[in-house]
Amino acid sequence: MATVLIPTPLRKFTNHTSKVTVRSTKVSDVMMELTASFPDLTKHLMDADGKTASFINIFVDQDDIRNLNQEQTEVTAKTVISIVPAIAGGVQK
């Protein structure tokens, strides 16, 4: 089973779980499985069309899925999936 690493800001929606194992074999299915297990994550990860929100970065092992097969990227039992919400802020000069 693949492992999904949950970032600290989203752990309050996963009962403070930092890692979740999933059975899915594609990133799109991983996201559906994750939000089915933790429905409160949905509004933080998905857009209105049920796709991964544009401000969410997903890495399969060390590779951004945007450089792979996007949400159709396949995962295996040894895959580590990292979810990285985009961070905005700072001071403009």
Order of helices and strands: EEHHEEE
Instruction: Count the DSSP helices.
Output: 2
Number of beta strands: 5
Oligomer: single chain
CATH topology, what is it called? Ubiquitin-like (UB roll)
Integer average pLDDT: 91
Which CATH top level class fits?
Answer: Alpha Beta
Whole-number tally of structural domains: 1
Helix content range:
10-25%
Strand order of the largest sheet: 2-1-5-3-4
CATH superfamily: Beta-grasp domain
Question: How far do the termini sit from each other?
Answer: 47 Å
Percent strand: 15-25%
How is the main sheet built? Answer: 5 strands, mixed
From the spread of the alpha carbons, the general shape counts as globular
Question: What's the quick description here?
Answer:
The protein is an alpha+beta fold. The protein has helices spanning 27-37, 42-45, and strands spanning 2-5, 19-22, 56-60, 63-64, 80-85. Strand 3 and strand 4 form a beta hairpin.
Map the helices and strands.
Layout: E1 2-5, E2 19-22, H1 27-37, H2 42-45, E3 56-60, E4 63-64, E5 80-85
Parallel strand pairs: 1-5
Antiparallel strand pairs: 1-2, 3-4, 3-5
